[in-house]
UniProtKB/TrEMBL annotation:
<protein>
    <submittedName>
        <fullName>DUF2218 domain-containing protein</fullName>
    </submittedName>
</protein>
<dbReference type="InterPro" id="IPR014543">
    <property type="entry name" value="UCP028291"/>
</dbReference>
<dbReference type="Pfam" id="PF09981">
    <property type="entry name" value="DUF2218"/>
</dbReference>
Amino acid sequence: MATSTTRVATAQAQRYLTQLCKHWAHKFAVTHGDGRGEIPFGEERFCRLAADAEGLDITVEADADALPRLQEVVIDHLKRFAFREDLGAPVWSLAG
């Protein structure tokens, strides 16, 4: 599995975390609360979210071939919810 992370600067991080989790909760066993969320997109594909007052940390895990697509899907959905603000282009960092 490969892991990548990005941080999106926004004062609305908690709101977006909640929206993303609720959006996918109808299809996946999503958990969220206390500024954190986890979306299991299927076998060995995860998105973990953490919100604070300055931004939203996003971590995605998947096999190396699926990782870029999962990053794209998560960011595309985030940008739909955040259409009133410019979140910029995410800079993803591969972990470990």
